[in-house]
Design goal:
The chain has about 190 residues and is of the alpha+beta class. Helix content is about 25%, strand content about 30%. The protein binds S-adenosylmethionine. The site of S-adenosylmethionine (SAM) has 12 residues, from strand 2 and strand 7. One of its GO terms (biological process) is regulation of DNA damage response, signal transduction by p53 class mediator.
Length: about 190
């Protein structure tokens, strides 16, 4: 008897299934990280590049409702409103579940795409590269100057300074394995 091979649904089909069913994909965990970052969403399984991860489900609101929300909500709730263009209009999604995905502007592992189903927009997150179990999901929030980004930049520059001073202290210019080594060369293994 010949065995029928079941084809894996495409990422778009997966997105359509979960959005229509109004439920979350399996394989995620929301965890507290630290007092700076708050919570984050972590993957418990492996995801391939391109796979559907989750939908930013929520309530679609217009500009006026968003303005009202900006006046009424506490700052900690405003960050859960996501602005996006759809059919020539600017809409906002007031996110409810899994709205905890943090910004990763340097090395994000996922990307938001707007999927239109029966004329309604759905904000869906897809893997932009392979994601390992235990990895935190991140996507690029956009070009704004978010306060945590400048802090991260300073930390990165500090780390680079330490590595450079370690290299220059460890190996002064000289000959290593017959090669004349300059302070700016990478260290031989
Ligand atoms: C939509 S919420 C994400 C979930 C949030 N971490 C929480 O615990 O509710 C966006 C907020 O998370 C924090 N955040 C997001 N990405 C961050 C990052 N890379 N570093 C530090 N804080 C971040 C900022 O406070 C931001 O306003």
């Amino acid at each position: 008897m010949t065995k029928m091979k079941l084809r894996k649904p495409s990422p778009k089909m997966d997105a359509a299934y979960f959005t229509a069913a109004d439920k979350d994909n399996n394989g995620f965990d929301v965890k507290y990280i630290n007092s700076d970052k708050g919570r984050g969403v972590f993957s418990c399984v492996h995801f391939d590049k391109g796979e559907f991860l989750l939908e930013y489900r929520g309530q679609l609101i217009n500009n006026r409702e968003c303005d009202q929300g900006q006046k009424l909500y506490h700052d900690s709730l405003k960050v859960f409103m996501f602005e996006f263009p759809f059919n020539g209009k600017l809409l906002w999604n007031k996110m409810v579940p899994l709205g905890d995905v943090n910004d990763g502007h340097i090395t994000p592992n996922s990307k938001i795409k707007i999927i239109s189903l029966e004329g309604k927009p759905h904000l869906c997150l897809f893997a932009s590269r392979g994601i390992r179990p235990g990895e935190e999901l991140t996507y690029n929030y956009g070009d704004s100057e978010f306060p945590w980004r400048s802090k991260l930049q300073v930390e990165q520059e500090e780390k680079e300074k330490v590595v450079y001073s370690k290299i220059t202290k460890l190996k002064p210019e000289g000959t290593i394995k017959g090669k004349v080594w300059q302070a700016c060369d990478p260290l031989p293994h």
